[in-house]
């Protein structure tokens, strides 16, 4: 049986490039996202793949996805589905934030929980949770909800990592924490970042390398990891003020 990976949010950006990277490594890749047409286009270029259209923001869809795949004996789970919104907390529509929380947090949590149990039972497998450099910061004025969701992802991943280590498990879990990446994320968030973005291809390559190396926090960019650590060590108010200035520099319509 071929090694099998599930990639959520595979219709574009980092998820699409991770699917391509895993395909190059000989994996059978299961592609999951809402946009089935995009998934089918990607599937045509891969060697061995399967398309499942689903909305990770909905609990019943996450459970359906697991039920469809629980007998596939996955080797890799990549929780990539997610999005952000730029703006003041009091101005961003509540429904947008709730859908963000359902996707970035709830959907990721459900899939991690369900597939992790299967991985632990067989004492093998890798989980890659796509977070963000935002998840390493004290907070993010003008992207408050997004930063909070990514902090949840990094915290959850770190806790599970240590639990697996304590249990002497062979299962590995990692969090990918890149800075700006050249993807559709910017359009959805209605933002343009003032610093140079890395390519999705480069991000995916570093992500997969770090995942298989068992790295807990994967930061693709040189120097960004040190900057994140500096932000964590700085007084919280100072760090928040600095982050707020950076966010204010993001251009919006």
Write a concise synopsis of the structure shown:
With 253 residues, the protein is of the alpha/beta class. It has helices at residues 13-24, 36-45, 59-69, 94-122, 144-166, 185-189, 200-213, 224-233, 236-248, and strands at residues 4-8, 28-33, 49-53, 76-79, 126-130, 172-176, 181-182, 198-199, 217-218.
Describe this entry's structure for a reader:
With 253 residues, this protein is an alpha/beta fold. It has a single domain (4-248), classed as Rossmann fold, CATH 3.40.50.720. Helices cover 50% and strands 14% of the residues. The chain is built from nine helices and nine strands. It has helices at residues 13-24, 36-45, 59-69, 94-122, 144-166, 185-189, 200-213, 224-233, 236-248; strands at residues 4-8, 28-33, 49-53, 76-79, 126-130, 172-176, 181-182, 198-199, 217-218. The strands form two sheets. Strands 3-2-1-4-5-6-9 form a seven-stranded parallel beta sheet, with helices on both faces. Helix 6 links the parallel strand 7 (181-182) and strand 8 (198-199). Helix 4 runs parallel beside helix 5. The longest helix is centred in the middle third of the chain and has 29 residues, at 94-122. It is globular, with a radius of gyration of 17 Å. The N and C termini lie far apart (50 Å).
């Amino acid at each position: 049986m071929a090694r099998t990976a599930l990639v959520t949010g595979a219709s574009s950006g980092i998820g699409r490039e991770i699917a391509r990277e895993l395909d190059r490594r000989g994996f059978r890749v299961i592609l999951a996202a809402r946009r089935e047409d995009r998934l089918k286009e990607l599937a045509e270029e891969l060697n061995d793949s399967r398309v499942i259209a689903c909305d990770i923001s909905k609990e019943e869809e996450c459970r359906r996805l697991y039920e469809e795949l629980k007998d596939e004996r996955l080797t890799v789970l990549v929780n990539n589905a997610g999005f952000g919104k730029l703006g003041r907390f009091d101005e961003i529509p509540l429904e947008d934030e709730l859908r963000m929380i359902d996707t970035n947090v709830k959907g990721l949590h459900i899939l991690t929980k369900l597939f992790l149990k299967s991985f632990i039972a067989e004492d093998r497998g890798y989980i890659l949770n796509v977070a963000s450099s935002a998840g390493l910061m004290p907070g993010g004025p003008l992207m408050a909800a997004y930063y909070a969701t990514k902090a949840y992802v990094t915290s959850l991943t770190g806790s599970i990592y240590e639990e697996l280590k304590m249990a002497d498990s062979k299962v590995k879990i990692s969090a990918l924490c890149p800075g700006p990446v050249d993807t559709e994320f910017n359009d959805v968030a209605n933002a343009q970042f003032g610093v140079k973005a890395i390519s999705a291809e480069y991000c995916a390559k570093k992500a997969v390398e770090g995942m298989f190396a068992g790295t807990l926090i994967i930061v693709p960019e040189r120097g960004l990891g040190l900057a994140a650590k500096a932000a964590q060590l700085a007084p919280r108010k100072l760090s928040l003020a600095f982050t707020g200035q950076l966010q204010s520099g993001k251009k919006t319509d």
